[in-house]
Amino acid sequence: MLVLDSAVTPGAMSVRLSFGVALVLFLSSPVRSEIIPDEVHHMECHDRYLMIAADLSFTGNNPRFVAVDKKGLHELTKPYQAKCGYSITHIHLLNLVELRASFFSCHTENINDQVFMFNIHLITMHNEVEKIYALNKTCSPSVPWSPREVTCEANYIEVSLGNEVSCRSRLQRDELNSTKVMQSSVASDWQVMFQRADEQMLPMNLSQAKKQGYMFDFTDGRLVFRTPYEQPECLLVQENGVPVEMIHATLFSKQGWIVLMVDLVVACSMYPGSYENGYVIWKTPEILFPGFHSTKINMGLNGNLVEQQAAEQKGYTVEVKDNTIDVGIPNTAEGGYRRSFVVDHLYEFYTFCLCFEQVLMDNNGIETTLRFHRTLMTPLLPCSVYTENQTNLEDHKFTVYVGDVPEDVELTSIHLNGHERQVHCTNKCSHNITRVSYHNNTHGYILEVPFDDPVALCQYLEEESVLQYSLDINYTLTVKTQSKPYYHLASIVATFTDVSPPVFDVDCLETGISFKLGHRPFDFLWEIFIGSEPLTAELATHRGYFLSNNSQSLLLEVPLFTDGYEYTEITLGGFFGTFTILMKNAGTSVAQTSTEKTCPFSSNELIMCSTDGRITAVVDVSLVMSHGGLAMGTKLLDKRCRPKETDKTRALFSFPVSSCGTMVKIGRQNVTYINEISYQTSLNVRSGFLDNATERVGVQCTYPLSGLYLLFSKIRFESDSVGVGKITHTLPGAGVHTSGLRGPIRSTALPQTVPATKKPPSKPALFMGADQPPAQFFKVSKFYNYARNYERGEYL
Ligand SMILES: *[C@@H]1O[C@H](CO)[C@@H](O)[C@H](O)[C@H]1NC(C)=O
Ligand SMILES: *[C@@H]1O[C@H](CO)[C@@H](O)[C@H](O)[C@H]1NC(C)=O
Ligand SMILES: *[C@@H]1O[C@H](CO)[C@@H](O)[C@H](O)[C@H]1NC(C)=O
Ligand SMILES: *[C@@H]1O[C@H](CO)[C@@H](O)[C@H](O)[C@H]1NC(C)=O
Ligand SMILES: *[C@@H]1O[C@H](CO)[C@@H](O)[C@H](O)[C@H]1NC(C)=O
Ligand SMILES: *[C@@H]1O[C@H](CO)[C@@H](O)[C@H](O)[C@H]1NC(C)=O
Ligand SMILES: *[C@@H]1O[C@H](CO)[C@@H](O)[C@H](O)[C@H]1NC(C)=O
Ligand SMILES: *[C@@H]1O[C@H](CO)[C@@H](O)[C@H](O)[C@H]1NC(C)=O
Ligand SMILES: *[C@@H]1O[C@H](CO)[C@@H](O)[C@H](O)[C@H]1NC(C)=O
Ligand SMILES: *[C@@H]1O[C@H](CO)[C@@H](O)[C@H](O)[C@H]1NC(C)=O
């Protein structure tokens, strides 16, 4: 029931309104209320509202609020909030629920518009058990009331007018169609009529309006009108690109012959916010109410208002263009909320709870204060997580920094070249991850992976002499509040140039060749081979090399006549021995370089069995023959075969196995070619076959059968490997066919087993007086007795 307090004199036009409420007795059962811990809630009085914030982790996700007044409990459902001056938002970024209750909210006790007593229950569910927390707070306006105040809340518009304005406005805006008013306002009750542009709607009484979601209230000194947004009676317009919602209501009451009228025009910018170069932009028309001018602007975040100048000093921008106020809030503004978000890429967005206050003045000096509560959000902005290659080749490890990782993002897993590695190493790890934090709310991680870590890929580019270690890193970064991870990828390559195979220092020794090698970091890229065999301690022992290897250097000495030598230019004066070491790429097993050393050597005797089936032997005949100085007279079994070269005591023979009467002995696994050097006097030269000398030097070459091709071929001999040669010396006094060969045998001091140069089979060389009858199979039978004696061991 509305009552006009005092008589209204037409001249003064001063009206005092009051709202007497019929007392409704509402007996609610007594509520058992719990004490809410201080750390999980916060209550704060602002200029025109009370703010209550509660921790969602305490309240659960769906806390309820109930307003309590003398009439009872009022559940604050969504439509009821907008109608009654409450606004509840969940700020998930802060894990908070926030309630803002207007001083004029329906269930707040108002004492003379100066003291407002709030009594609100927060209801939570803990394990299906409902708990009630009573929250009481008393607030007083910190700034005096303006004659007109408009609040554009998140979910409603509220306007309050002081008494004086309520009456004056009738004079200034006589927009009502008086005929219509007179026709419909028969009752003495207040009526309200909405207008939209030129369209006037039918008047209705306040209870009808309330049913439609509007709220009118008369406090001690103010008329309060509240409407949710987007009511059917509202008008949406664009002003210079800024959407504006307006509502125009006229209240009137006929009291006898007086008609009281209150014209209520409210408008709010509905600009949703935009984003430009690091600023969130919010706009509002400079003059929302015609006939007014703007005098003052205050703004801030989360209800903390400062004057325009102070805001600008904090980095906010305020610009007026096209009759529009543009407010820019920098991303980094204090009070903004930031969160990371993953959709394929890593993004971040900022949320700002902007409070904007504008004081407007009309020509009569009547002030209107306009307040906005707007939640503004940036679009998803790409996050600038970056990787930096801090690798220093000398450290022999990858050092990779990933930086600008936002505070709400953690490294949860890491894959190095596809292999998962622990972020927080518990056991011994070869890699190392160190977290680095900064004051600007970002952090980074330093990853260290030694080049010799099994996950690191190593590639040697032979042609460029370049060694590359590469590491593909897949960082799994997880936003704390989101399960979907973001994969940040980086590929790091560390390149060593001028990486070439090791080079030996080589020296000729009197009895062999020495190879020396100082170890270098990348020697593991190569393997040392001798022929087809890798150099190992076993091989060295087996072949009679001397090998010494420590962490600094490797020394290999190969004595003359050991496996691996090749001999060339054999003369009585000396010969050349060549030893070759191969460096094979350990990965591809392809020989990359070889170290070949040829040294001159001399030896009293030697025998060489070449792969093309040639026996080359230097024999010292003086060891068995007393006819010193007559080496020139020596011959092979086929007497036509004479030495190539002789000096006083020694003769050099060189002949193919298929010639010079060479005997063939075939064993199970090898074949042996045997010949004999004997002395021929001038006498028996003349008498041809009357030779009776018993001093002989045996020469023989044994080839493994498995390595031979085309055995007994007339054309050529070919063996995989050189043969094993042997020289035996038989002193006079022994018969050839019987025990003669069993005579004392002397070996020369140096090893006699001399492998020959492996050459492609060549044309047989011409021999002194030799007609080269090729060895043929029948020759074996001719020398069968010899062969049999060999088998019986009698020859030795
Ligand atoms: C809150 O206020 C109501 C009445 O205004 C009172 O009954 C209640 O005890 C108060 N509760 C607390 C916790 O102060
Ligand atoms: C006022 O309303 C009456 C009746 O609805 C109508 O005839 C008249 O034209 C209106 N006047 C104006 C100025 O709108
Ligand atoms: C308001 O108007 C409705 C419909 O015209 C009517 O039923 C109701 O009684 C009125 N209420 C008051 C308080 O006059
Ligand atoms: C990892 O790096 C940190 C910082 O450089 C160092 O203190 C730590 O000893 C390292 N851990 C290992 C296992 O190398
Ligand atoms: C944060 O601080 C670090 C260290 O001063 C700097 O390297 C980095 O660029 C800063 N990040 C941002 C986003 O400002
Ligand atoms: C990165 O790691 C994740 C998880 O193992 C995987 O699903 C993703 O395919 C990886 N990305 C690339 C480019 O290897
Ligand atoms: C990383 O740093 C190393 C050492 O300074 C360098 O060799 C390499 O080229 C760098 N770049 C990349 C992309 O890995
Ligand atoms: C020699 O020693 C080095 C270092 O100890 C080792 O890497 C290399 O394999 C050794 N080489 C041979 C042939 O044993
Ligand atoms: C020839 O083969 C026999 C076995 O049949 C073997 O004992 C002998 O050592 C071989 N001779 C040579 C020189 O390889
Ligand atoms: C070889 O035989 C001849 C005559 O038959 C003989 O005069 C000579 O002494 C013999 N020589 C040897 C070394 O036995």
TrEMBL record:
UniProt keyword annotation of Signal present: yes
Gene3D superfamilies referenced in this protein's UniProt entry, alphabetically: Zona pellucida, ZP-N domain
Coiled coil segments of this chain: none
Signal peptide (UniProt feature, chain positions): 1-33
Highest taxon of the lineage: Eukaryota
ZP domain mapped to chain residues: 608-796
PROSITE patterns named among the record's database cross-references: ZP_2 (PS51034)
UniProt name for this protein: Uncharacterized LOC114480600
Source species: Gouania willdenowi
Lineage, top ranks: Eukaryota, Metazoa, Chordata, Craniata, Vertebrata
